[in-house]
Amino acid sequence: MAEERIERDDAGRVHRRFHVDAEERLEGECTTWDGEGWLAQRAHFKAGLLDGELVQYDPFGNVAARMAYKQGKLHGDALFFDNARPQLKTQWLLGLQDGESIVYGADGKPSAITHYRAGKLHGPASWYRPGGALLRTAHYLDGELDGELVEYDERGRVTDRTRYAAGKAEQRRPA
Length: 175
Prior knowledge:
The protein has no helices and 17 strands.
């Protein structure tokens, strides 16, 4: 059975509440408050390793980050926020970025959508201008450009095309 521990600051306020197992490893929920007494973080541990959801809060109580862990490694969705607005959503598989990654602009619209496999860019990638107009598209294979990289103007017209193979430009065709 896990034993609850409470750490307090010099003013006597609870700074951290957590549980440890018989081997003194973190086990279960661990909650941390900042120096002003506001909730700063909640995390789940198993045998001393992050395992489950970790949530961090900004000074206003909004979720700043929400990440999933398995055996101490990022595993699943990771979401990051600024003043409750999404900034980044990405996926992880046992510590390596794996799956779709979306970066959001100040307007809340995607500014980049990329894909990863085993920690490397892999698959289609698109970048957008503020407001949502397409800026550039590309394709990656094991971290290197592979296929056509296309540039677009503000009206969505193609301005440049470059074909890549294994990260090297093969052919450039201005529009």
